[in-house]
């Protein structure tokens, strides 16, 4: 039995298999009629291909509509190796850190900005393939998609920004909005796969072996509370935890761990989600101009921060990070 040192959700499903089973069954039942309709799956595939067309690395197999009915789905054949297939990746000389970086960009766009999320994220649905234009990521199985409410999407984005900025008060505020109340520290650990100590002192630092041991211990110690968190949050949050698991699982199976770059990618998407929502709420042109400027300024600060990080890890940088917290 492999034990994921940092994936709390997996630990829960390992110890309480029936628990995970239950919510998965509910989830699946809810979507069953849709999943059986392949016309719907074809439409989902085309929608997501359009929505993510800016990512040149992403390949969604084309649907052959002439040969597709409610009961038969015909699509372009795409080959490649599963994203957790170590041998394949090594043999084809694929850079796995780049794959996870691209995957997290793609998932961040789906979750934070678009609110339309592939709901069956497991390694079998993600193939990688080396092409002359670069490494391609093939996303399969479009039967199940979840649409996130803007309530969830925007408040979850703010939670992430607070996590990255180590702003404990705001972490509590936004975690409470997602329904966990006093278990906000635990939820934070579950979505970041970091210890509370590192969340409250700066998540952008590298994970140490010591921290991993701490998280592992915590997972065992707080099992009942973890179950409690899972029962309090919405289906949307469960789905997001599942998507997190996909990324963490891939990283774990290849022996790499989320770096600063990963958190900055998330931060950029969260900033876009929050400001684009504000923009949408604006009643006047002046308000829209102001919000657009604030958005670009915040994104620019993240770029500067990333540049600075290349050569130092100083207090100035910590100060700068705290500046892109969005109220
Ligand atoms: C990641 O995306 C970039 C373009 O955004 C692409 O050039 C590169 O090949 C991709 N790499 C992988 C490993 O997916
Ligand atoms: C976030 O949560 C607050 C408090 O529950 C709610 O009033 C607000 O509308 C939510 N944000 C969005 C964009 O829906």
Mean pLDDT: 82
Considering DSSP H and I runs of 4 or more, what fraction of the residues is helical? 55-70%
Silhouette: globular
The residue ranges in which pLDDT falls below 50 over 5 or more consecutive positions are 1-7, 14-21
Structural class: alpha+beta
Annotation field: number of helices: 15
Could you give a short account of the major beta sheet? Answer: 4 strands, mixed
Characteristics of this structure?
alpha+beta; 15 helices; binds 2-acetamido-2-deoxy-beta-D-glucopyranose; Mito_struct-func_regulator; disordered N terminus; globular; ABC1_dom
Explain this structure to me?
This protein is α+β, with helices and mostly antiparallel strands and 327 residues long. The chain has three domains: 3-35, no CATH class; 38-147, no CATH class; 150-322, no CATH class. It is built from 15 helices and six strands. It has a four-stranded mixed β-sheet, with helices on one face. Strands 3-6 form a two-stranded antiparallel sheet. A hairpin with a 2-residue loop joins strand 4 and strand 5. The termini are far apart. The model is unreliable at 1-7 and 14-21 (pLDDT under 50). Bound molecules: 2-acetamido-2-deoxy-beta-D-glucopyranose (2 copies). One 2-acetamido-2-deoxy-beta-D-glucopyranose binds at residues 150-151, 154-155, 177, 277.
């Amino acid at each position: 039995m492999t034990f994921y040192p940092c994936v709390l959700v997996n630990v829960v499903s390992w110890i309480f298999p029936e628990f995970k089973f239950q919510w998965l069954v509910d989830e699946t039942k809810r979507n069953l009629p849709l999943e059986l309709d392949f016309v719907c799956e074809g439409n989902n595939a085309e929608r997501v291909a359009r929505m993510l067309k800016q990512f040149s690395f992403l390949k969604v197999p084309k649907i052959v509509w002439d040969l597709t009915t409610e009961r038969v789905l015909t699509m372009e054949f795409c080959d490649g190796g599963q994203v957790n297939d170590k041998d394949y990746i090594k043999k084809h000389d694929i850079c796995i850190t780049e794959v996870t970086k691209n995957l997290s960009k793609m998932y961040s766009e789906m979750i934070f900005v678009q609110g339309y999320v592939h709901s069956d994220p497991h390694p079998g649905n993600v193939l990688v393939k080396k092409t002359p234009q670069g490494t391609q990521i093939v996303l399969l199985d479009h039967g199940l998609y979840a649409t996130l409410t803007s309530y969830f999407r925007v408040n979850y984005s703010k939670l992430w920004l607070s996590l990255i900025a180590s702003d404990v008060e705001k972490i509590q505020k936004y975690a409470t909005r997602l329904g966990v109340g006093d278990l906000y520290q635990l939820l934070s650990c579950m979505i970041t796969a970091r210890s509370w100590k590192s969340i409250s002192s700066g998540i952008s630092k590298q994970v140490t072996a010591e921290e991993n041991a701490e998280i592992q211990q915590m997972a065992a110690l707080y099992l009942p509370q973890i179950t409690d968190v899972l029962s309090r949050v919405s289906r949307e949050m469960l789905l997001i935890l599942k998507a997190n698991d996909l990324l963490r699982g891939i990283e774990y199976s290849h022996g790499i761990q989320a770096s600063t770059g990963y958190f900055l990618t998330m931060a950029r998407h969260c900033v876009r989600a929050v400001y684009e929502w504000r923009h949408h709420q604006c009643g006047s042109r002046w308000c829209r101009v102001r919000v657009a400027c604030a958005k670009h300024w915040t994104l620019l600060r993240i770029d500067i921060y990333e540049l600075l990080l290349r050569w130092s890890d100083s207090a100035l940088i910590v100060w700068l990070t705290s500046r892109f917290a969005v109220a």
